[in-house]
Amino acid sequence: MPALATRSALGNESGLAPEAYHQEKHVIARPSGHRFVADVEVSEIDERMRPGPSWVARSFELSKSHLVMDSRRMCYPGRVLALAVHLIDDRPVPLLGRVINCQYSDDGLYRVDIDLLKIPEGHSVYAWALARSGHVHKRA
């Protein structure tokens, strides 16, 4: 019986504390992306697959499979986000992604690492991004 109590107290059979196991699970060697600085409007997708309230963030790395951005709002790992990337004099580009990691960076910013997902045909992210065709509210 003591062996079972020890295992449940540690949280897993590897012998790590639950916090360490959670952090170790999300440390992934990712290929480095290319520098990509752009304003991004972000919205969390709810359980009905609809975008919620949006906020502005700034991207700084992009690859075929992931995007890294700085955000004033913390994003929980596993959540799905809708992104509207604003390029100069163009309509926003819609992206959909799942948060892999979110860590406090500095000056009240969180560094958010997102795996990009394929947007299903006819998903509400397209309409949401097109509705953001106006000017982006710059973050302070």
Offer a few descriptive terms.
6 strands, 3 helices, disordered N terminus, 2 domains, six-stranded antiparallel barrel, alpha+beta, Thrombin, subunit H, globular, 140 residues
Can you walk me through this structure?
With 140 residues, this protein is an alpha+beta fold. It has 2 domains: 1-30, no CATH class; 34-130, Thrombin, subunit H. The protein contains 3 helices and 6 strands. It has helices at 2-10, 18-26, 124-130, and strands at 34-45, 51-62, 66-71, 80-86, 93-104, 110-117. The longest helix is centred in the N-terminal third of the chain and has 9 residues, at 2-10. The chain starts with a helix and ends in a 10-residue tail after the last helix. Residues 1-24 have low confidence and may be disordered.
The dominant shape is globular
Note poorly predicted spans.
1-24
Q: What is the CATH superfamily classification of the largest domain?
A: predicted glycosyltransferase like domains
From the 3D structure, determine the CATH topology of the largest domain: Thrombin, subunit H
The fraction of residues in strands falls at 35-45%
Chain-averaged pLDDT: 80
**CA gyration radius, whole angstroms:** 18 Å
Spatial strand sequence of the major β-sheet: 1-2-3-6-5-4
H and E order: HHEEEEEEH
Number-wise, the strands total 6
By CATH reckoning, the class of the largest domain would read Mainly Beta
Largest beta-sheet details: 6 strands, antiparallel, barrel
